[in-house]
Amino acid sequence: MDIEDLLADLQQNSTTIHGRTTLNNSLITSEINTKSFDATSEDPTNGISTGQTTHLNTDNDESYLKDHQSTNENVYLESFVSKSEKNKLDIEAFMQLTTSWRNERMSPELLPFNERVFNLMTENMKRQIEYIDYWNMLQESETDTGATNEMTHEQLLLQKRINKLPLHCMEAELERVKFLLRSYLRCRLQKIDKFLLLLQETDQIVFDEVSMQEKSILVINKLLSEPEYRYFQQKAKITARLLSNTVLLNLPENFQQINDESSTVKMIQEPDLEQFVFIFVKGSDQKNSSDRYKIFNIETQEEVELVVGGIYVMRYDLIESFVKDGTVILI
Amino acid sequence: MYGDFGAKLVQDAKRSRNLKKTLQNNKNVTDMGTKYGLVEYPKDLIEQIIDETSHLGAKADHINQLFETNSSNNLNDKISKCQYFTTILSIHRNKRCLLGYHNYRRENIDEFVWQNLTSIADIDISGLSEKLDMNEKEYLRDYQAIIDDYSSNFPELEIKHKGDYGLEPPKDLYVEVRVLKDGGMVQTEYGVFNLIKDSQIFMRKSDAEALLQQGYLQIIKN
Questions:
Q1: How far apart are CA B168 and CA A136, in angstroms?
Q2: Which of A36, A199, B184, B201 is the most buried (most CB within 10 A)?
């Protein structure tokens, strides 16, 4: 999927931002409408930046505002070009994270944690926060020292507000990135909660040759991150304690296991892998890959052909391997 | 009849879930217990089920012994086999009812914890604690600690600070809020707000979120 697609996609979610500021007996009320706002961050240093269109409307001084805004955009463009290499990586990371997030939300089972991208985004986000703070401080000091006599009080206030505009945009972007990360993590936690017993069953401590330590197989297979694994273990512990203290210890001796082999009903909740999902066939990055993928459904003896760029509704278990190698994304 | 109590327990759970659903969008509910589907812990009922189950367990053991001692009469054998089978089934059924009920309560506690991460100190006031069993209270405290531990890995994401408000996509940087109860002075990055009941404030969303969670504020929708 190229950037255009993603942007178009995000555009649908984008909203108009109304920033209304009322200061000092509401001398001026300026309405700032930021339109066509895409959910990437427009920090020059951070880099997940794309061009933006900003419309400003004020009753007081329209031409002045426009001048100011265009200089701002020039600054954006220059730094955009000089950091293009890093930018590209960051945009990619952002898109990958969006894909992981979407896959995670739509798939019935827990998917491997996209650690590399997540860490990259977290780093970028931290840098962005610092950058905003820095710019904020810079502007504060500017308005303190750079007050000229030519400007009236009103103009000064207005200018202050105009200077704030790019900052507001960046902060709004930052909030969006934060939301994405947060939502990704929480979604995973919910799934961990849901499949607690199942994870517990597959959990196994093995010797990891890379870090020369004994680790859980779940962490080595990247299914869970280290913090998530800790969360899972603690949660499993207190859940087991709650259930055994209230119920299991009071039952007859032979029935104190949560999941009883002899019972006809399985107590462990498993993901419904036969659930239907909407998929988009993205295709592979490798050169000699074809633009068609064949899937054979053994139960119904049917063969389905997936064409790159198509959207299908399918049973999850049939396309599970494609989701995991990134050829297909869930929507 | 065996299993009646279990059925009653499950029905209770279902009733409280329906009640919870109907109350979901009602903001006037102050009773935390009802809001999160946590009714008073039915201790008597649960003890009755446990008694019944241990009685069934003893019976199953007894039948088992009969198998070992006399395997002469063929007809009798069949009858006791059937008896044994139903006894075991009843035990499993009771166990499932109990586990299901407790798990349902546990999920509700989880939900409560996530939605009240910052104001959890008020739990005794909200009247929830008297509805929980001792073990459940312990679980609630432990779970809070676990979330604390987990979210401290990502301080800048403010997982704990935002709670469930963090799961809504951000739309505006600023929100207009109405103050629901007096809260004194609140210090934020952009100045000090004085929370006076029924006043309206235009403030940063990120500042408002914690106060929204604690029930001081309400978002005014246009």
A1: 27
A2: A199
Residues A218 and A157 in one domain: no
Domain final residue pick, A223, A254, A270: A270
Residue A60 C-alpha, separation from nearest chain B C-alpha, in angstroms: 23
Whether residues A137 and A41 share a domain: the answer is yes
How many angstroms separate the CA of residue A292 from the nearest CA in chain B? 36
Can you tell me the distance from the alpha carbon of A235 to that of A220, in angstroms, rounded to the nearest whole number? 20
Q: What is the pLDDT of residues B197-214, one digit of tens each?
A: 778 888 777 777 777 777
Give the count of Cβ contacts less than 8 A between chain A and B.
Answer: 135
Residue B146 phi/psi, 5-degree rounding, is: -65, -45
Nearest chain B residue to A186 by CA: give it: B167
Whether residue A155 is found in the same domain as residue A96: yes
pTM strictly above 0.80? no
The CATH number linked to A320 is 3.40.5
Tell whether A259 and A283 lie within a shared domain. no
Would the CB atoms of B202 and A125 count as touching at under 8 Å?
A: no
> Given this model, what pLDDT does residue A144 score?
57
Q: Do B96 and A265 touch (CB under 8 A)?
A: yes
> Exposed, middle or buried, A82 (CB in 10 Å: 0-12/13-18/19+)?
exposed
| pLDDT tens readout for residues A176-233 | 888 888 888 888 888 888 888 888 888 777 776 666 677 777 777 778 888 888 888 8
Q: Is A247 within 8 Å of B166 when comparing Cβ atoms? A: no
What total of structural domains would you count in chain A? 3
Structural domain boundaries enclosing A220: 196-270
Query: Domains in chain B and their CATH numbers?
Result: 4-151 (1.20.58.1030), 169-219 (3.40.5)
Nearest-CA neighbor of A181 among A70, A279, A4, A39?
A39
Within 8 A of B57 by CB-CB distance, chain A residues are: 251-255
Instruction: Give the pLDDT band (50/70/90) at residue A52.
Output: very low
